[in-house]
Design goal:
It is built from 4 helices and no strands.
């Protein structure tokens, strides 16, 4: 519900605090696309590029996004 979405936004806010901050937010739960409440979580994301990937193409899509990450 709303509490979960609020916590989700707060977590994103801790990652991205200014316009110059960069971050990668990875949602690995397919319910975000399959359930009606998923659109609310997607709407909570900051504007940017969204990449969708499946189990079969995750290596080719996801790895370049995190290559060079200073994690």
């Amino acid at each position: 519900g709303r509490g979960e979405r609020r916590g989700f936004r707060q977590g994103i806010g801790r990652l991205i605090r200014t316009r110059s901050d960069l971050g990668t937010i990875t949602l690995l739960d397919s319910r975000i696309l399959q359930r009606p409440y998923g659109r609310h979580f997607l709407a909570a994301l900051p504007h940017g590029v969204i990449h969708r990937f499946s189990r079969t193409d995750r290596a080719t899509v996801f790895r370049p996004l995190v290559a060079g990450c200073q994690c």
